[in-house]
Amino acid sequence: MVHQRKNQRNLGRAERRRFVDAVLKLKRRGEYDEFVRMHIDFYVSDGEQRLRVAHMTPSFFPWHRRFLLEFERALQRVDPGVAVPYWDWTKDRSPAASLWGAGLMGGNGRRSDRQVMTGPFAYKHGQWVIRDGVTDGDFLTRDLGRPRDPIALPTARDVARAMADPRYDVPPWNSTSPKGFRNKLEGWTSARGKERWQNHNRVHRWVGGHMLGGASVNDPVFWLNHAFVDLLWDRWQRRHPGSAPYLPERPPGPGSSEHRRIVARDEPMPPWNVTPGRLLGHKGLYAYA
Asked: Tens digits of per-residue pLDDT, 75-89?
């Protein structure tokens, strides 16, 4: 049966509670940390001489679509009525948004050490201990808006610039790709300072704390961010029905710097061995409300 992913602002109190309870149960079982470790393992930059499937690569969207599906299926083994909500960060743009209430994600980190002190994922409640991260801290951290060096969430105009590009991706198929929807929405640029990060990347920077880097799954808001990214990919496809939904169609040849470092449309993506071509749509799996 097709389930609906809702905007987090439209969740009822019972829906928020069921989602949070299912996430916490996965954490208690140890399953949640498996997702954290997987994302760390596949966070490969384009400066590394090995295969990239999750970031700085054309398969950014399909890889995270499958990652989200695996997480959602794990949640539904706990509670079949749960789906991953999405966070439209072009509209819910401040730490006062309902997203950060005690009934869903909890609030900001405290000033001294960025430790999240409110909500279900606060360390003090004993249910959310960080086991795999880039630091030794065992509590969840956030720095919403980065007050010491403020940064704003992406705007609807920022998203529109990415959505307007009719090309899915362009060579060299990495973080330096000058055009293409994928890189524009993933958010890598050649700019300096705060403008270096756009759209998806800027959201990670705005949240801060554990949302920075490969261990970002430690913050459950990761899933709400990527559900919205997935929704935007769907909208882009609808807006450009005549465009190739995924590029490259064929793998770069031996003379390319990206030879064996990215996956083409019909090549398998680890760790699931599914191709991007099989993840271009989500009909029959889920819908967005």
From this structure: 999 999 999 999 999
Tell me how far apart the alpha carbons of residues 168 and 152 are, in angstroms, rounded to a whole number. Answer: 26
Q: Which of 286, 170, 172 is nearest to 230 (CA)?
A: 286
Average pLDDT, the chain: 96
pLDDT at 195: 86
According to the model, what pLDDT value does residue 196 have? 87
Q: What is the DSSP string of 116-161?
A: B-SSTT-GGGTS----S-SSS--S-B--TT-TTS--PPPPHHHHHH
Q: What angle do CA 142, 143, 149 make, to 5 degrees?
A: 160
Question: In terms of C-beta density within 10 A (0-12 exposed, 13-18 middle, 19 or more buried), how is residue 280 classed?
Answer: middle
CB atoms within 10 A of CB 272: 15
Amino acid sitting at position 202: R
Q: What are the tokens at 222? A: 């990761």
Q: How many CA atoms are closer than 13 Å to the CA of 91, on its beta-carbon side?
A: 10
Domain segments of the chain: what residues? Answer: 3-288
Q: What amino acid is encoded at 94 in this protein?
A: S
Rg, Å, the chain Cα set = 18
CATH 3.50.50.60 fits 3-288, yes or no: no
With beta carbons less than 8 A apart as the criterion, state whether 278 and 268 touch: no
Instruction: With CA atoms as reference, report the closest residue to 5 among 24, 19, 25.
Output: 19
* pTM for the full predicted model: 0.97
What pLDDT sits at residue 191?
Answer: 84
Query: What are the backbone dihedrals phi and psi of residue 239, each rounded to the nearest 5 degrees, phi first?
Result: -75, -30
